Amino acid sequence: MNNFNNENSNNEIYNNTNTNEVVGVAENAPKKSSWQKELLDWTLSIVIAVVVALLLTNYVFQLVNVKGSSMEPTLHDGDFLYVHKLMYKPEVGDIIVLDAPDDPEKFYIKRIVALEGQTVSIDLYDDKLYVDGEEVEEPYIDPKANWTEGSAEPYTVPKGHVFVLGDNRYTGGSKDSRSLGAIPIENITGKAMFRLFPFDNFGGLYNN
Prior knowledge:
Elements: H1 2-28, H2 34-59, E1 61-65, E2 80-84, E3 95-99, E4 107-115, E5 119-123, E6 128-131, E7 134-135, E8 155-156, E9 161-165, H3 177-180, E10 183-184, E11 188-197, E12 203-204
Antiparallel strand pairs: 1-2, 2-11, 3-4, 3-11, 4-9, 5-6, 5-8, 6-7, 9-10, 11-12
């Protein structure tokens, strides 16, 4: 009888020891405070937002602030534009943003007037632009502007390039393909689609 009681007592002590150990582990387990969890959530959200923003601005669209008067009267100094970049294919008449071939720190905003393989000629006497021998209607320029820059000799745009002009055709009004030559397509960032600011001129840049 005594031995039986002793065995039971030993079992009770063993069980109590295990219980104390389990309780001790639960009480000493580290807990992440609510402010640490909230900080981690905010940090993760900010990182994701930055990555998404970088992807969008690098591959989908760009917001551009116009500087200078080379695209007047269409665009003005201080205009804020939405530029579409994703899968852009150059077309005649597009207003494009391009990396300046003469200054890697700058970008230019110009209009495409001819694509690869097309022949451009400028008549300095009647202030007309011709592409493949046909006069180009340009309702977006100031009809009073007198062309004094450019070559009257026909110029064929090489493969992988475009010929661009600023809408400002007054003397010194625009640095474009008349002095820079044809622009490599790889220099094109995207097509300007909308004017976002000033608000009184908000809207698309093309009438058609």
